[in-house]
Amino acid sequence: MAFLEVKNIQKSFGRTEVLKDISFSLEKGEVLAIIGSSGSGKTTLLRCINFLETPQMGNIIVNGEVLFDGDDPSKKKDSEIRKNRLHFGMVFQQFNLFPQYTVFENLVLAPKLLAKEKIKENGEYRGATTYKEAVESINAEAERLLDKVGLSEKRDEYPCNLSGGQQQRVAIARALALDPDVLCFDEPTSALDPELTGEVLSVIKGLKSSESTMIVVTHEISFARDVADRVIFMADGVIEEEGTPSQVIEHPQSPRTQAFLSRFNQYSD
Questions:
Q1: Please, are residues 65 and 72 in contact by the beta-carbon 8 Å criterion?
Q2: Would you say the pTM of this structure is higher than 0.90?
């Protein structure tokens, strides 16, 4: 059984059908890159997967648990959506850090709020049975994650004092702090200057492991080729082509994929 299963996802805004019967699966530890032209549905698909948008139809299953069923009204309740969103970490184009909090505070804010809620509901949070124990664990994990993304020395800085690349690395650490099943990136380098793009892509590449399942919507074709296990090329709300980087990027079969990649090759020459 696949770790993540996305089945027959359909999403419309008014009369505009943005996603048309999208299905794919992902094994635990795999990295999926989604490429395609602007307006192809890439970001909407990612937002449906992590419950920032609600599809009209389809199923989303993580590790055998049905998180979304388009035919089941109970799966569309706000309380269910908030709970299911915790299965996914999201890194946005524009960082979305809280400007009034330091780097360290940005990392620990959500886990501490969640810990207080979970201890009240279930009597524990990640093995901690008191809020004090949970906070100690959360703080230690935040320190570890800052070290992982190379920003330990920036823990007490505010986002306004960081470069764009540093802010995006903080955003990655913040997403990891909630220990998501699937980490999602929406064009994580599109808001960065070219010289800062490499540092962010290097951090994402360093996250790849047998335990880290990732979906990356990206325009960085060389990154998709070198890091992804699977690549999806989207066009007009459908999956036009899917396979390994070698199959999709090096030896595309679809004329639309070929045309898209030829433009990339032209610009990269």
A1: no
A2: yes
